[in-house]
Specification:
This protein is of the alpha/beta class and about 500 residues long. A nine-stranded mixed beta sheet has the order 5-4-8-9-3-10-11-12-13. A hairpin with a 4-residue loop joins β6 and β7. α9 crosses α11. The longest helix has 18 residues.
C-alpha cells in the first residue's frame, strides 16, 4: 500500500513531539550574588598610554609584513628597561614571551637586542611533557600559566601569534568558542595585573572591523580591552601607522607613524640582521581609515577614488566646487578623507574663488583641464589658438584638414592655415559674424573660378582655395559641436543654409 506525502505529513503532525531533554546539571555549581557596594571602583591603568591596558587583554593585528612582531618586541624591550610611557615608567619589569612562529635564536632574541632589551628579564614560556617540550595550548594550560604569572608578576605577557596557542578543538570563526579561549586570558590579566598582548594576523577579507579580519570572529575585538592595528601609510610607502581600532577605555584614539629599519646585531657566527621600530610621532592619519582602503581588485581605494575624481572633473569642469565633488564621491561610496587623499594623488589643484571664497577643484593642465591660479587664467591670451588649449598653430594643421574633410568641405593648404593661425594668435580676436551677415571691410572679390577671395564671415582677404578664415572656421566648428554628432563621422553637424551667394 502506497502512502501519499500529504498523509505522511499529516501522520507526523498528529504524533506527539518529543521535547528536548534539559542538560544534566553539573554537580557543585551554584549561584553566587555579590553586592555592587562590595566592589571598589578603580581607574584604568595603562602599560602604554592609551594603547595597552595594564591588567587587561590587548590585541595588535595587521597584515603580513606590517611589523606587528617587531612592535611587540619593542614593547617587551622597553618594559624590561622601564621605558614604556605609562603606569610603570621608570620601573624595569620582567616579561613572559610565548613565540610559536619566529625562531628565537635567529629572530626574536636579536630583535629584542636591537630594541635595547635587558634580555635577562625576558623569559620564554613552554610546556614540558614526558616526551618533549612544546608550546602552550590554551585554554587547556590556563592553570599552569596562571601559576607562573602569579609567581613571577611580569608586566607583560606576549603571545605571538595568539591564534597559534588556541586549542585545536576551538573553531576560530565561532564567536562562542573563541570566547572560551579569550575570556580566561582576560580574567588572568585582570586577576594578576599583567598585561597580555596577543599578536594576530589579518586574513584576506576586506573589513574595518579587526575582529572580522582575525579569523572572521568579532569576539577578537569584543573581548580584549584594547585593540591596535597596523597599516601602511598612504602618505609614505616606507611608513606604517599604528593606532586604536577599539578604544573604549580612552577618550580619543591615538595614531602614531613609525618606520621599520634594518639593524645588525652581533652573533656568535657573524651578524644577525633584524628589523627595529622607529617611532615618528603622532599623525593625522587614522589606522581605521587605512584599513578601509585595503587593496581590492588590484587597485587601492585611493586609486579608485582618484579615477572617480578625474572623470568627475573632466565631465563637470573645468572648475568644480569642492563640496559638490565630495558629495558626488559620497554617493559613489568614498569617504571625504579618501577623496581628499585621492585629489592629492591625482594632482588636483585647489583654489578659492568668488566672495565669499569657495574652494574649487580642477585638473592640472597636462591632464586636459584648465587648472592653475586665477592670475594664470587672466594672463592667458584670449584668442582662437588659446581656446583650443594652447596648441601651437603647426599642431592644428592636420586637425583642420581632418575636420573639414569629414564635413565635406575644404580648407586651403597647410601653409595658409599656419599663416592665418599665427596672425590670429598675435592680433585681437575679431568679432565673429554669421556667414550670412554682410561682409565688413569692402566689396568681395571673385577668383578666376567665380568664388570669393574674402571670408564670408568677417571680410578678411583669403589666399589659395580657402573658403573662410581660420577664426570663422573655428567659430563654426565650435557652434557645430553643440548640435548632435553625425553617426557616420562622429562630428557634430548642423543643417546647411543656402546664402544668396551660394544660390548664385
Amino acid at each position: 500500500m502506497t502512502v501519499s506525502r500529504s498523509e505522511q505529513r499529516r501522520s507526523r503532525s498528529d504524533s506527539p513531539r518529543r521535547k528536548p531533554e534539559p542538560p544534566h546539571a553539573e554537580t557543585g555549581r551554584k549561584i553566587v550574588l555579590t553586592k555592587a557596594s562590595e566592589i571598589r571602583p578603580t581607574r584604568v591603568r595603562w602599560l602604554v598610554d592609551d594603547w595597552i591596558v595594564l591588567g587587561g587583554l590587548n590585541i595588535i593585528g595587521g597584515r603580513e609584513g606590517m611589523g606587528k612582531s617587531t612592535i611587540a618586541a619593542d614593547f617587551a624591550a622597553k618594559a624590561t628597561r622601564g621605558l614604556l610611557q605609562g603606569e610603570l615608567y621608570g620601573q624595569p619589569r620582567d616579561v613572559l614571551y610565548g613565540a610559536s612562529e619566529d625562531l628565537r635564536a635567529m629572530t626574536i632574541v636579536p630583535r629584542l637586542i636591537a630594541a635595547g632589551a635587558d634580555i635577562d628579564r625576558v623569559m620564554f614560556v613552554d610546556i614540558q611533557t614526558e616526551d618533549c617540550t612544546t608550546g602552550l595550548t590554551l585554554p587547556n594550560d590556563n592553570h599552569l600559566l596562571r601559576e607562573r604569572v602569579e609567581a613571577i608578576q611580569p608586566a607583560l605577557l606576549v603571545l605571538d601569534a595568539a591564534t597559534s596557542f588556541m586549542a585545536s578543538w576551538i573553531d576560530g570563526k565561532d564567536d562562542r568558542q573563541v570566547r572560551r579561549y579569550l575570556e580566561p586570558l582576560a580574567a588572568l590579566a585582570q586577576d594578576t595585573g599583567c598585561s597580555i598582548l596577543g599578536v594576530c594576523h589579518f586574513g584576506k577579507r576586506e573589513s574595518t572591523d579587526t575582529g572580522k579580519l582575525i579569523m572572521g570572529s568579532i569576539a577578537w575585538s569584543q573581548v580584549p580591552r584594547s585593540v591596535l592595528a597596523v597599516a601602511k601609510s598612504c602618505d609614505d610607502e616606507d611608513q606604517i601607522v599604528v593606532g586604536n581600532t577599539k578604544a573604549n577605555l580612552t577618550r580619543t584614539a591615538k595614531n602614531l607613524a613609525a618606520r621599520i629599519e634594518s639593524r645588525r646585531v652581533p652573533a656568535d657566527d657573524g651578524h644577525a640582521e633584524v628589523g627595529a621600530v622607529v617611532w615618528l610621532g603622532e599623525t593625522g592619519l587614522k589606522v581605521g581609515d587605512l584599513l578601509g582602503e585595503a587593496i581590492t581588485e588590484g587597485r587601492s581605494k585611493i586609486e579608485e577614488a582618484a579615477m572617480f575624481l578625474t572623470d568627475h572633473l573632466l565631465a563637470h569642469g573645468p572648475k568644480v566646487p569642492k563640496q559638490d565633488a565630495i558629495k558626488a564621491g559620497h554617493k559613489a561610496g568614498f569617504a571625504e578623507r579618501t577623496l581628499e587623499r585621492a585629489a592629492k594623488k591625482a594632482g588636483v589643484i585647489s583654489e578659492h574663488i568668488g566672495f565669499p571664497r569657495v574652494a574649487h577643484w580642477s585638473l592640472p593642465d597636462e591632464r586636459g583641464g584648465t587648472g592653475g591660479t586665477e592670475l594664470d587664467q587672466e594672463q592667458r591670451p584670449d584668442n582662437d589658438t588659446a581656446s583650443v588649449g594652447g596648441t601651437e598653430p603647426d599642431q592644428l594643421k592636420q586637425l583642420f584638414e581632418d575636420l573639414f574633410e569629414a564635413r565635406g568641405e575644404t580648407v586651403g593648404g597647410t601653409d595658409d592655415i599656419t599663416s592665418d593661425l599665427r596672425e590670429h594668435s598675435e592680433n585681437p580676436k575679431p568679432t565673429v559674424q554669421s556667414r550670412h551677415t554682410p561682409s565688413v571691410g569692402g566689396t568681395a572679390q571673385a577668383r578666376s573660378d567665380g568664388t570669393d577671395t574674402t571670408c564670408p564671415g568677417c571680410g578678411r582677404e583669403l589666399t589659395g582655395k580657402t573658403k573662410r578664415c581660420v577664426s570663422c572656421a573655428l567659430a563654426k566648428a565650435r557652434a557645430s559641436n553643440d548640435s548632435d554628432p553625425d553617426e557616420s563621422t562622429g562630428i557634430a553637424t548642423e543643417p546647411r543654409q543656402t546664402s544668396e551667394r551660394d544660390a548664385a
